[in-house]
Predict the 3D structure of the following.
Amino acid sequence: MTDSPAEPPSTARDGRLSYAVFQLARAHRGHAATMLRGMNLHPGQELLLMQLFDRDGQTQSELQEGVGLDHSTVSKSLRRMQEAGLLTREPAAHDRRALVVRLTDAGRALRAPITDMWRTLEDISVRELTAEQIETFTAYAHTIERSIKDSGRPSPGDG
């Protein structure tokens, strides 16, 4: 690695890992946003499209659960994507209150460019890492994510 990371602010010195995760996420998201602009997409919209590539015709609630974003963010993104001609939203036959989201041909056409974007982002992200380091980092990242998600739940012995 070439550059040493900047020293975190004094208030973050007891949270060095958390500050590093924040810096990493910001850099990664910023680079992804630049790549997405080339496809006329906003960050997060590709995640919704990826869910639909795997299973078209999901309800808005299913999509929201799949990407882990709040209702208003998903609703706003889907509205913009519908206005851009990437998808349609129609009331579900089983429940008129639920909206079923389906890709249009224009939306389906983004599958290859989004796949290429994620492959390129991965190549950039791991270019100075070995395969073993990638596996180790990925495992640690999932462990940290689980720890954060579980932080609000009571421990098995609590109660």
